Amino acid sequence: MKQRRFLVLEDGSCYPGYAFGSTKDAIGEIVFNTGMTGYQETLSDPSYTGQIITFTYPLIGNYGINEDDYEGVYPGLKGMVVHELAEHPSNFRSTKTLDEALKDFDVPGIYGVDTRSITRKIRSSGTMRGTLVDNADKLDEIVESLKVYQLPVDEIQLNSSKEIKQFPGDGPRVILLDFGSKDNILVELSKRDCEVIVVPWNTSAEIILAYKPQGIMLSNGPGNPTSVPEAIETIKQLIAQENLPMFGVCLGHQLISLASGATTYKLKFGHRGANHPVKDLENGKISITSQNHGYAVDEDSLKQTDLIVSHRALNDGTNEGIKHKEKPIFSVQYHPEASPDPHDSNDLFDHFINMMKTAQGGKQHA
Ligand SMILES: NC(=O)CC[C@H](N)C(=O)O
What we know:
Layout: E1 4-9, E2 14-21, E3 26-33, H1 39-44, E4 51-55, E5 59-60, E6 79-82, E7 84-85, H2 98-105, E8 108-111, H3 115-125, E9 128-133, H4 139-148, H5 155-159, E10 165-167, E11 173-178, H6 183-191, E12 195-200, H7 205-210, E13 215-218, H8 229-239, E14 246-249, H9 251-259, E15 264-280, E16 286-297, H10 299-302, E17 307-313, E18 319-324, E19 329-332, H11 347-359
Parallel strand pairs: 3-4, 4-6, 5-7, 6-8, 11-12, 11-13, 13-14, 14-19
Antiparallel strand pairs: 1-2, 1-9, 2-8, 3-9, 10-12, 15-16, 15-17, 17-18, 18-19
Glutamine binds next to strand 16.
InterPro entries: Anth_synth/Amidotransfase (IPR050472), CarbamoylP_synth_ssu (IPR006274), CarbamoylP_synth_ssu_N (IPR002474), CarbP_synth_ssu_N_sf (IPR036480), Class_I_gatase-like (IPR029062), CPSase_GATase1 (IPR035686), GATASE (IPR017926)
Region (CPSase): 1-172
Family: Belongs to the CarA family.
């Protein structure tokens, strides 16, 4: 029998639907994702930690869940909100249903709700707190508890690897500073033969430099980029090095900007999905990109730094990329590692590899 479940928002609205996944209640920041596919990657992307995701695409779960497409070790997201849940997926790689996966991960979901109306509300009122409950009889009490709920601030610490991990390769040696990295960043670097050393988010510049890296990669990650001042200080020291290529993705982009003296701010409802157009200001090229961020770099604040704006979002004109005026340092707010697609900007990894080769005069590491 179908179990009733309710999505209650901070503004007092209540959406009745049906339960799937875990039976526990959830509380978190309610956001929406506009991707037509990619729910498995979204489910396992550490950058969604603490959030309840509403999917605007009306049918979710139709190709099931497979063993290969996870982006993180455990899902950080708090809950899933879908319109129609596919109970009988069809795909040759599928090993379980989305409902079964959410049960395994102890993440609750709700289906049978008007996701379009929820999305319109978030777009007009902004991101807010929400909860998934099986009983909404005491709605006023639930709304009051939502209003005082503090969103967690330690998501990066929770998602970063706890120890240093080395992945061999014959190409340039890259330190991947892990703020809750999607697995596909490592995959893209390894595909290009890099030797990758993954280090926890709070590793000092001294330890990082002792590895004699040929490049530094700053990963994506959850939460507010200003919540890790230690990492910002480390990045400042790494930027100050002579000729050390650096590439930042999403949170990594925000951290390079903060370390250079710029500021970030919270967007009204963020960018989440696989269909966000971005313009490269140098050549006018438009890429369709995968995005997942709630904060953005303030372009005005970049004026007083050594960084210049390289990319901008076409939907709302917010910043999507920067590069250093002199040094081999660049970063983007979107996800060139994609996963889910599109792969329009995958060549940014090749650009990073070329930068490392140029910086080393073409030499491989010893
Ligand atoms: N995917 C990311 O790295 C997200 C960065 C940051 N947590 C934000 O929401 O803006």
